[in-house]
Task: inverse folding
């Protein structure tokens, strides 16, 4: 019985992975590219120490954004504003890291908190409109995602934030050393945001599957009417989950700035590209 349960639980993810692989290879063949060469490039990239370190650098921001989307998905909401919330988290943590220079034990947590709050605040309009007017969150979050990079450009151009030495690109001043995340592997860029992302994943799992709040979130997502019948305030659950989701995406942006980029480069956040969208795909 145990083996049967394991098989039933693993069958659909395994089938999805195989199907995705087959579709990907089929598209490569249709484009006239040798699939063996593509697979060779993939294998070589995974066997390189430098390539693995690059994956480790990109992983935290992507994981935070995936957790952000997953959390709202479990409550019955589609938060496609993750890219925009990611941008605001990066922007807010950059501003804090530039303007404040406390001891690292104080500055780093506060810079991360500013990123969390930035992402949550960018999710607030969509959450409020969903809560009060039941306006489709897909539309509002997508609109906010497209406007976030433009807002970022405006803020970065302000005096005291923009780097005057960079003429051809829009970039902020670098954050203070006291706001930078400690490195785990000097020389390859892997920093403590990797540990923060893994801890966040564990905490989200505990929240969803081991707490009463998680039961309410999942019940709201599975059947809102039944959840309301059992006394769950589904509107409040969705609203708070929305804000928490935005905060997680904002943390992803903060980790990218404080751990990797150390400054806000506007071109990095243009459009829906980057870790915000990658996180949605990963989720």
Result:
């Amino acid at each position: 019985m145990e083996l049967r349960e394991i098989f039933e639980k693993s069958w659909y993810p395994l089938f999805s992975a195989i199907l995705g692989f087959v579709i990907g290879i089929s598209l490569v063949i249709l484009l006239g590219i040798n699939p063996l060469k593509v697979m060779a490039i993939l294998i070589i990239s995974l066997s390189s120490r430098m390539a693995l370190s690059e994956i480790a650098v990109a992983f935290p921001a992507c994981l935070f954004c995936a957790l952000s989307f997953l959390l709202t998905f479990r409550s019955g909401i589609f938060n496609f504003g993750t890219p925009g919330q990611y941008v605001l988290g990066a922007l807010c943590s950059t501003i804090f890291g530039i303007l404040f220079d406390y001891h690292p034990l104080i500055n780093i947590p506060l810079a991360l908190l500013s990123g969390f709050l930035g992402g949550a605040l960018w999710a607030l309009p969509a959450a409020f409109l969903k809560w009060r007017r039941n306006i489709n969150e897909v539309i509002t979050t997508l609109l906010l995602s497209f406007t976030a990079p433009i807002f970022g450009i405006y803020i970065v151009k302000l005096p005291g934030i923009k780097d005057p030495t960079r003429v051809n690109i829009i970039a902020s001043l670098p954050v203070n050393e006291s706001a930078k995340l400690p490195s785990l592997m000097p020389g390859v860029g892997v920093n403590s945001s990797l540990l923060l992302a893994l801890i966040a994943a564990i905490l989200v799992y505990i929240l969803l599957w081991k707490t009463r709040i998680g039961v309410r979130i999942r019940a709201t997502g599975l059947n809102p009417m039944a959840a309301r019948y059992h006394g769950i305030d589904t509107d409040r659950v969705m609203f708070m989950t929305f804000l928490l989701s935005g905060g997680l995406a904002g943390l992803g942006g903060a980790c990218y700035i404080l751990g990797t980029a150390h400054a806000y480069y506007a071109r990095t956040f243009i459009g829906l590209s980057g870790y915000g969208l990658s996180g949605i795909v990963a989720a």
Remarks:
- The chain has two domains: 1-47, 55-282.
